[in-house]
């Protein structure tokens, strides 16, 4: 079994869908978990969000707080 050596060096992601739409149009939760610390972020996103926008949100929400491993 692989064990990460540094926080935020290895992550897992999942999407929770089928949620009611919020006032801002979000319909999904993007779950990003650090495999070492088990620290999780839950980010509200829109269903039709494309990969380039997800990458931008990742930088804004995760890299901004934890830096680049």
UniProtKB/TrEMBL annotation:
Gene3D superfamilies, per the entry: Ribonuclease H-like superfamily/Ribonuclease H
InterPro entries in UniProt: RNaseH-like_sf, RNaseH_sf
GO molecular function: nucleic acid binding
Highest taxon of source: Eukaryota
PANTHER family to which the protein is assigned, alphabetical: CHROMO DOMAIN-CONTAINING PROTEIN-RELATED (PTHR45835:SF99), YALI0A06105P (PTHR45835)
Protein name from the UniProt record: Retrotransposon protein
Annotated source species: Trifolium medium
């Amino acid at each position: 079994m692989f064990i990460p050596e540094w926080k935020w060096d290895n992550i897992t992601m999942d999407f929770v869908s089928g949620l009611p739409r919020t006032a801002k149009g979000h319909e999904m939760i993007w779950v990003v978990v650090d495999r070492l610390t088990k620290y999780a972020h839950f980010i509200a996103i829109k269903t039709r969000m494309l990969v380039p926008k997800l990458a931008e949100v990742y930088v804004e929400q995760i890299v901004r707080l934890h830096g680049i491993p």
